[in-house]
Amino acid sequence: MKYGFGVDAGGTTVKLGLLSEAGELLEKWELPSRTENGGENILPDIARSVQDCMARRGLSRDDCLGLGIGVPGPVDASGMVNRCVNLNWGVFNLHDALGILTGLRVRAGNDANCAALGEFWMGGGSGCRSAIFVTLGTGIGGGVIVDGRLLTGAHGVGGELGHIEISAPDKAPCTCGKRGCVEQYASANGIVRVTKKRLAESAEPSCLRAMEHFACKDVFDAARSGDAFAAETLEQVFDYLGEALADACCVCDPERIILGGGVSRAGDYLLRGVERHFRAHMFHACKDTQFALATLGNDAGMYGAFRLLA
């Protein structure tokens, strides 16, 4: 039996997992991300923690397939990182740097792509050959799997689903510099923005008016409790996201669309709403596209990072 490590390096914490070659997560733990001084401590901290785990479990280098790592930024196939702002990293070869520190084979990828690969392999995409994974959180990220392989693209930005431009009439500005990106409408922040805008533009009654500050979850809770305004708002959000996913499916034709991230905790209300609007926008040949919720939660990135070693 061979083993390996999956690492999900975030701006606050680094999540690490020891996995068997069959995909069983045997142990997981976290380290603080020490981002000071250009993030110079992050890789040595990871290396020491991995080596401690190997010593504790009696594992040699020959027992290990290597270490896969997902990072919040673009990474090319050679392992070259091109600035990870959340980690204060510049440009360097991550395969070489972490390989020297650990003595292990290293493979690196973008964190959202790793989460997509993890969900595809052991989560909501299990059993299919091609999938789109969408993370609906503060923003919108994701990844695309075609015939079992990540679609990263020529510039490492394959799967940037949040920046698909939709037909929203207000064409809200996006942090990327474009206008009308779906991230500004269907992310957690986007849903709150759309709701506040609709509240300001109408006199329609809603329990949300009594809340000085509300979150995305409050909008879903209001809709479930029978608030017509909240339900109408979410139908608009679902339509925007369904439109973006229908456009994406014309490019990569996945078997399954997997919805993850914090917003996906809304469960079937979100899933069935987005699917319904997707089917109104889709190209007819995509009629058999399936929808599923992500199942791995915060562990998806570790699974996917490990899968990079395959």
From TrEMBL:
Signal peptide: none annotated. GO terms for molecular function: glucokinase activity. Its EC number is 2.7.1.2. It is an enzyme of class 2 (transferase). Keywords: ATP-binding, Kinase, Nucleotide-binding, Transferase. PROSITE patterns: ROK. Belongs to the ROK (NagC/XylR) family. This is Glucokinase. It comes from Faecousia intestinalis. The lineage of its organism: Bacteria, Bacillati, Bacillota, Clostridia, Eubacteriales.
